[in-house]
Amino acid sequence: MKQNDKSIIRAWAMFDWSNSAYNLVITSTIFPAYYTAITTTQDKGDQVYFFGFQFINTALANYSLAFAYLVMAMILPVLSAIADNRGNKKSFMKAFTYLGSLACIGLFFFKLDTLEWGIICSTFAAMGYIGGVLFNNSYLPEIASIDEQDRVSAQGFAYGYIGSVLLQIICFVFVLKPEWFGIQDATFAPRLSFLLVGLWWMGFAQIPFNKLPSGKAKPKKITTHVLQNGFRELKSVWTKIKGLQDLKKFLGAFFFYAMGVQTTMLVAAAFGEKILQLGASKLISTILIIQLVAIIGAYLMSTLAKRLGNVQVLIIVVLLWISVCICAFFIQTEVQFYFLAALVGLIMGGIQSLSRSTYSKLIPTEEEDTTAFFSFYDVTEKLAIVIGLFFFAFIEEQTKNIRYSALSLALFFAIGLVFLIRLLQYHKGKGPLN
């Protein structure tokens, strides 16, 4: 396949455009605000019952997400092995897209008396998002040359932020001005937003589905049991990584700082609602600001990486993340929250984009099984998220204070920082990782 083809790159970036609506509306804004509001009652407070078991409402949501990421971490190696051997990773992209988008549509029927349904649908939506991202990421080293991967990765995230913000604004109008549309049921506008996310996700994904290549099957087909073959391939990738010191050190750093980054992104809305009781309108406006600033952050970090080197920029960004966690513990006012949100937006887009392109650069150029390598990358990230979410929820349940959960994330960033410094020392003398 020809690299750096602008039409293919645009189509690839449109996958971020399509599925990032889930990431913004479902994980970051309307769903967390809606979920926290309907599950906080006068008689039971923030306590909910899920199939007879009692939880703090936000802890239950975090546990369910952790479960989704754990399941995906277990099955992704199997699916990537099948995709590499059969050359059908686009088919898996489609399957996970339809799973996630249909689950979002299912959230239209989520109310307090259907809590179990809502948790199940949100779990499947997360699985669909996770799976689609893996197979989309694996196209990056195929469609872009090494010198273009930072820019192309940033373009994907920028498309994602722009697309998700556009849909968010549409949903925002329904949520804040339901009377314009004759909506009287207070739950209808948020539930309509979930329906729109599913349709947006499914609809715009047709662009990359029609443009991206399907891949080629290997002459040697899978001959062993598929489960065994999948994890055998994952083990094979790990064996290769162990011989690549820079890639191994980067994955160590990524594993720990991803715990902090992804957990922060998933719990930010619930944190703002619980600590400052901002309300849906202010909370959604804040997250919109984060998304817009994140577009600037993705391109800014890409530009800085060309001048300073990828690892150096990642170190700076991780230091900023540590300061965010500390500030979150002491935050008291709306103004402070808005300032912190702007900083999170700036470094959120940068660290995601730069992490993906840095890993892509470190994969040996002679490797053909890019899906397997990105499966390892995604499994690393998913396991990190499982630990981060579980740790966050567990601390809140033990301390009854979500501030301590936020502060604890600084530990993960600090460990990731140590690995990045070690990677920088190892790479010293070899030139910046551009």
Helices and strands in order:
Elements lengths: L5 H21 L3 H9 L8 E4 L2 E4 H30 L2 H18 L8 H23 L2 H4 L5 H28 L11 H17 L1 H6 L14 H17 L2 H32 L3 H29 L1 H21 L3 H29 L7 H30 L2 H26 L7
Antiparallel strand pairs: 1-2
Overview of this structure, please?
It is a single chain. By secondary structure, this protein is mainly alpha-helical. It has one domain (9-214, 226-427): MFS general substrate transporter like domains (Growth Hormone, Chain: A), CATH 1.20.1250. It contains 16 helices and 2 strands. It has a two-stranded antiparallel sheet with strand order 1-2. The protein is globular. It starts with 5 loop residues before the first helix and ends in a 7-residue tail after the last helix.
How many runs of DSSP E, i.e. beta strands?
A: 2
CATH class: Mainly Alpha
Give the name of the CATH superfamily: MFS general substrate transporter like domains
Poorly predicted spans: none
Please state how the strands of the largest beta sheet are arranged side by side. Answer: 1-2
Radius of gyration: 21 Å
Average pLDDT reading: 83
CA distance, first residue to last residue: 23 Å
Helix tally equals 16
**SS strand fraction:** under 5%
- Tell the overall outline: globular
CATH fold topology: Growth Hormone, Chain: A
CATH architecture: Up-down Bundle
Structural class: mainly alpha
Percentage of residues assigned to helices? over 70%
- Total tally of structural domains: 1
How would a crystallographer describe the biggest sheet? 2 strands, antiparallel
* Series of H and E elements: HHEEHHHHHHHHHHHHHH
